[in-house]
Amino acid sequence: MVLLRQGPARYFELREAIDGVSEKMLSQTLRALVRDGIVARRATSSIPPRVTYELTELGRGVAGPLGDLLAWLSEHQDELVAAQRAHDELESSASSVA
Question: Which pTM was predicted?
Answer without folding.
Answer: 0.74
